[in-house]
Amino acid sequence: MSKTTDIYVDTVRQCQRLLRLLHYCQQHYTYFTELYFHSLEHYIKSDNDKITGIVLQQIASHLFEGTNNENDHQRLIKYLPSSTTTIPS
Fold it and tell me: Which H/E stretch holds residue 22?
């Protein structure tokens, strides 16, 4: 007989951790920038409202912290819902 074990993976928490890691990496290593933005784009399209919320929180946090690159700033704003894109730079 073989036993099967169900393992629960908290996808929302994993998404949050991945985005934090990628954000850190892209701040220190420019070659992570495209991977970071690709991940944001992927997760913002999620059917899971909690994941979408995490992405929006992450973007807001990064905009609040500021970015050294105006292009990255504009790319982050692009992912916000249209009613909130009047955030000053």
Answer: helix 11-28
The enclosing H or E element of 50 equals helix 49-65
Query: Which among 50, 27, 51 is positioned nearest to 37, based on CA atoms?
Result: 27
CB neighbour burial string for 20-39, b if at least 16 within 10 angstroms, e if fewer = eebbeebbeeeebbeebbeb
Helices and strands in the chain, H and E counts: 4, 0
pLDDT digits (tens, 9 = 90+) for 61-76: 877 776 667 777 787 8
Give me the residue label for tokens 């990628």.
22
What is the C-alpha separation between 49 and 10, in angstroms, rounded? 14
CA 73 to CA 68: how far, in whole Å?
A: 8
Q: Find tokens 């169900």 and name the residue.
A: 6
Structure confidence by residue, pLDDT tens digits, 43-63: 988 899 998 988 888 888 877
Instruction: Quickly tell me which residue has 């955030």 as its tokens.
Output: 87
